[in-house]
Amino acid sequence: MNYVLDHVGIAVRSIDDILPFYLNVLKGELIDRYTSDAPGVEVHVAVVRTDDKIMELLEPTNKNSPIARFVKQKGKGVHHIAYRVDDLDKAISEARQNGVRFLDNTLRTNSRGRRLIYMNPASTDGTLIELCDYK
């Protein structure tokens, strides 16, 4: 199974406040912007590309969203690291065979067609890792 860095998710309080930094200072390009109102997600997303790297700026849409809880508990900053895999189902199976636990309620397809799941941070020494594929 190949694991390729897909993107880094960054929790922010306000996309509009931080976006100029990514566009003007880091010379990034805004390639997508959308809102996910799915239960358990509730987030505004701005996707920024710098050269061959992708960052997702994640702004909570309500005080109970996972990103709002993250910002309240840990502050702004890196929320997760995402790895693209060839076959998400196979990657999950292989990881489970190696004792990795997942946050099973996170398995979903987002509004942009990306299938994803998050590994339980207890299995990754505290880092929230997303596995994803694009069908």
Automatic annotation (TrEMBL):
Presence of the UniProt keyword Metal-binding in the record: yes
Gene Ontology terms, MF aspect: metal ion binding; methylmalonyl-CoA epimerase activity
Entry keywords, A to Z: Isomerase, Metal-binding
CDD domains per UniProt: MMCE (cd07249)
A Pfam family hit: Glyoxalase_4
Alphabetical GO biological process terms: L-methylmalonyl-CoA metabolic process
Taxonomy, superkingdom: Bacteria
Xref: PROSITE patterns: VOC
InterPro entries: Glyas_Bleomycin-R_OHBP_Dase (IPR029068), MeMalonyl-CoA_epimerase (IPR017515), MMCE/EMCE_epimerase (IPR051785), VOC_core (IPR037523)
SUPFAM superfamilies referenced in this protein's UniProt entry, alphabetically: Glyoxalase/Bleomycin resistance protein/Dihydroxybiphenyl dioxygenase
EC number per UniProt: 5.1.99.1
Residue span(s) of domain VOC: 4-134
PANTHER family: METHYLMALONYL-COA EPIMERASE, METHYLMALONYL-COA EPIMERASE, MITOCHONDRIAL
Family of the protein in this entry: Belongs to the methylmalonyl-CoA epimerase family.
Listed name of the protein: Methylmalonyl-CoA/ethylmalonyl-CoA epimerase
Organism: Salirhabdus euzebyi
